[in-house]
Amino acid sequence: MNDQGTKAVALPHLAHIPLRSHSGQAPLQLHLGQASLLSPRAPSRQPRPAVRGFTLIEVMVGVAVVAILAAIAIPSYSAYVIRGKRAEGKTALLQAAQAMERIYTQSGCYSFTSTPCAGTQVTAPPAASPADYALSFLAGPAAQSYSLMATPTTFTDTDCGALTLDNTGAKGALGGSASAAVAQQCWGR
Predict the structure, then answer these.
(1) What is the mean pLDDT of the chain?
(2) Where along the chain do its domains lie?
């Protein structure tokens, strides 16, 4: 019993609620902790809203996946770009060889400085050099032979290096291991 003549029952975490007795005894009161149902600071029983966002682990997994994909994609893309530039060099060599064959058809030789073909000397390949290669003569032009070379200028082609083409149609590469297999691979793709 408390000082007002009422019985009190303490229940934790519930509000203070007075109860009336019908038998004429003192009213019962429920003490439910510090908070009251009538109190404006009653604890909220509503569920927390869902938290939005990513955890650190989820972010790190995402970064790792992107890093793995980049490690695979960037070298593949670089090789693709070099193959595209190499195609430009091969095209320029083939056009220069075609121009040299026209000269041979008209005059009977590749070099105009030889005795049977007197005329203007051919000192540079007749085709214009592309932006990524410099065209030059590797050997010649002699009366009956020439050898053209396309050297990369704006990039490094570690596999093939400079591409070569001669009057017989032999295709070569001066980079890498400089073998016939490497030359075939460089000219094939």
Answers:
(1) 75
(2) 1-37, 86-188
